[in-house]
Amino acid sequence: MMVKVEIVSKENIKPSSPTPQTLKSFKLSILDQLIPAPYAPIILFYPNQDHGDGATDLDHQLHTRLETLKDSLSKTLTDFYPLAGTIKDDLYIDCDDVGAYFVVARVNTRLRDFLENPDLELVNHFFPCAPGFNGSVAGCCVTNVQVNVFECHGIAIALCISHKILDGGALSTFLRGWTGSSRGSKDVVIPNLGAPSLFPANDLWLQDSAMVMWGSLLKFGKCSTRRFVFDSSKLAVLKAEAAGNGVKDPTRVEVVSALLWKCAMAAAEEKVGFRKPSMLSHVVNLRKRLASTLSEDSIGNLIWITSSECGPESEIRINDLVERVRGSVSKINGEFVKNIRGDKGREVMEESLEKLKDCGTTKDYIGFTSWCKMGFYEADFGWGKPIWVCGSVSDGSPVFMNFVVLMDMRFGDGIEAWVNMDEQEMEILQHNQELMAFASLDPSPLQTNQLSVF
Question: Could you list the active site residues?
Answer without folding.
Answer: 163, 380
